[in-house]
Amino acid sequence: MASPSSGPPLNTRVAPPMIPPPAFPPSTQMGFTPGAIPPGFMAAAPMGIGPPGMPPPFMPPFNMNMPGEIVGAPVSFNKSISQSSNDETKPISEWTEHKAPDDRLYYYNSVTKQSSWEKPDELKTKTELLLDQCPWKEYKSDTGATYYHNINTKEASWTIPPELEELKMKIASEQGIIQAPLIQQSLEIPVDRGMDSIDAGSAMDQAMAATLASIAVPDENRPANNVSGKGFKSKFQAQEVPILKNKQELIEAFKELLKKKNIPSNASWDQTVKVISRDPLYPQVKKLNEKRQLFNAYKTQKQKDEKDEHRLKAKKAKEDLEKFLMKNEDVTSKTKYYRLEEKYEHLDIWRNVSEIDRRDVYDDVMFNLAKREKDEYKVQKKRNMKQLASVLDAMTIVDHTTTWYQVQEMLLNNQNFVNDPKLLGMEKEDALTVFQDHIRDLEKEEEHDKERERRRRKQQERKNRDNFGMFLEELHQQGKLTSMSLWKELYPIISTDVRFSALLGQPGSTALDLFKFYVEDLKSRFHEEKKIIKEILKENSFIIDVNTTFEEFARVVCLDKKSETLDAGNVKLAYHGFIEKAEGRERERLREENRRQRKLETAFRSLLKEMDVDYKSNWDDVRGQIENHQAFQAITLESERLRIFKVMSAL
């Protein structure tokens, strides 16, 4: 690890060739980046003690990446380790160590004639070589506080990283050294006056705890007022000397002493000694440097508390000013800053806030007022539109045909509208939007009314048709309407009924259409009813011939219960159908009889022809000769035989 210095760790710089070692070492004139070394890290101060009257130096937050190059000089890990390592026998190296005019060490190579700020590996001890393997490096700030930087991730931390701590403990254990790390570091952590992230109540406690670790507490068996001998006893014999049992009580007691005396944060040590030196607690802290370290820790905490108090007061003043402006009716989002300054610069609530903070408050107030005015405008707009809609709803004379011009005249005569100043100041575009929405609603209502009327009318028309259908059913039950009925036959009966009159003039199916539909429906039932009639006739073994009358047929059918649902017209149609079939059978029988008779006549003629019958033949003579013949016997009627004989004898 590099030796401690007040500057940051720097990359190896090569001096111009042929420059001997006593010459100036590498410097910023050799190309260092301007600004790479922050001013706050250029000069170290005694641990725990800053320059009088100056705030502690900048302290980077934990785990904060350091800007630019690594700042601060790396410090050696342990003085005892470094000393032990330096005592080891080293081989002769080309590199030699030299000191610059500013007391910083640099290294010169007698062979290559190069110089470097970083210690070459040849000159490093085993401990330094081991520490080089860890990416975390140790540095000191300008106040002497130790911090750590990772050369790979550029991360900085006030606390020692675990890997570096383990490496140090390993090195210490190998050399047989037992040590308690970071005790001194807790004394040297500076307090950032500008950062709220650091614990406000811990700075003085840490410093006191670390400092008093080496303070000897008075022996409990010895009275506290005997600490300084007889002179001390006579000096404080009128005051009660507190008995402190341990170091922590001493820390708390000294803290309370400074608080009780109300030592300001800008007080010097000499001024403070004049105030607290006569207190019996003062001599119990033996060493002067211990007292001063406790005093410096107290000042650091006091400055922190004062800054917090000032910040809270400034914050409250800003909040009060913001509330004042937000509640002021004269302030709007359009108000200019210079107008507010002219009007309220004499008020304490205005003067208590700095110019920069007032500008910030003004920007916030303008933003909030603009947002509030926008919200109020939306609320007012919504209220006006809702109120105007209510006024239009109450105006029954407005319908879906009313124009915007007519509505404006009506509103001027409406008391609810005229007496509402907010409505009178309503934007015309919003009012027109409400009117359009209202007219659309009226149009929808009108359309709904028409639709309801259409549905009601259709329902009535359907009801009228159903009633007329029931009327036709009554006529059918009475036997007046059958499948064979004609409109002209039943019109005199139908036209006198009110159910017929209700159908007149309405669209859709007329009474004549319904009559035809009903008759067609009866006719469509004919085939099913004919089957029923056949079953009835079969069950009664009734045979229909050409001589069967309708009365005989109807009597047989009507005696059966299944005939109750039969249409009279279909029964009559079935009868005619059955008669037609009977007549057809009779005609077929006659035709068959004629064919058979003609065949017999042909056979008898052939027989007579064989007998050579002529006009001279006598029937009695011929008959006696053929009477036993089959052809003669087949014709049963004598008259037919004689007719055929006469025909044949005439040929």
Summarize the structure.
Keywords: Coiled coil, Repeat. The protein is mostly helical and 651 residues long.
Q: Biggest sheet: strands, sense, closure? A: 5 strands, antiparallel
Helix content: 40-55%
Q: Which class best fits the helix and strand makeup? A: mainly alpha
Name the average pLDDT. Answer: 74
Strand arrangement in the largest pleated sheet: 1-8-7-6-2
End-to-end separation: 168 Å
Tell me the fraction of residues in β-strands, as a range.
under 5%
Number of strands: 8
Protein name: WW domain-containing protein
Region (Disordered): 1-23
Coiled coil: 300-334
Keywords: Coiled coil, Repeat
Description:
It holds the Pfam family FF_PRPF40A. InterPro entries: FF_domain, FF_domain_sf, Prp40-like, WW_dom, WW_dom_sf. Keywords: Coiled coil, Repeat. This is WW domain-containing protein. It comes from Schizaphis graminum. The chain has 25 helices and eight strands. Helix 5 crosses helix 7 and helix 12 packs parallel to helix 16. Among the domains are: 161 residues, no CATH class; 115 residues, Arc Repressor Mutant, subunit A, CATH 1.10.10.440; 72 residues, no CATH class; 54 residues, Orthogonal Bundle (Arc Repressor Mutant, subunit A). The strands form two sheets. A five-stranded antiparallel sheet has the order 1-8-7-6-2, with no helix packed on it. A three-stranded antiparallel sheet has the order 3-4-5, with no helix packed on it. The radius of gyration is 67 Å and the shape is elongated. The longest helix has 50 residues. The protein is 54% helix and 4% strand. The chain is mainly α.
